[in-house]
Amino acid sequence: MNTILVPIDFSNLTDHLLNEAIDYAKDTRSKVYLLHVASLDLGFVIGDLGFQYLPELEDAGMKEEISELKKYESKLKAESIDVEIIIKQGIPSEIILQEAEKLNVRMIVMGSHGKGFFMDVLLGSVSNEIIKKSKIPVLIIPSKILNK
């Protein structure tokens, strides 16, 4: 079975990326892993005493992100696509590459925000890191396509 990993960042391009991933998954009869990498600072606040960790904030943030992922999961299931959701905390490029290898996916499908400098202008910093380090093929959907 073909498998693809689709990193989701909940940006304004996510719905468009998901539509492209759905088309690709249907064309290739692929199972889709939707991966969201949550921020490492989830649950931390800056107050009078400096940085403070509040686990209830982390729990609330993770529940909200899981809820959003489940909405995307439902959208893919409605299209008869086999899908699993994954949420991890860490550095996005590292987690994406680790999960892609662990899951033995055939391709990583991700969007490009096109923000930053030089290559980051074309791809985005996370996309750029993935392309440089991945041993797995990467399909980048340009922001111009995602913004249409």
TrEMBL record:
Q: Provide an example Pfam family for this protein.
A: Usp
CDD domains found in the cross-reference section: USP-like
Q: Which residues form the UspA domain?
A: 2-142
Q: What family does this chain come from, according to its entry?
A: Belongs to the universal stress protein A family.
Q: What is the protein name for this chain? A: Universal stress protein
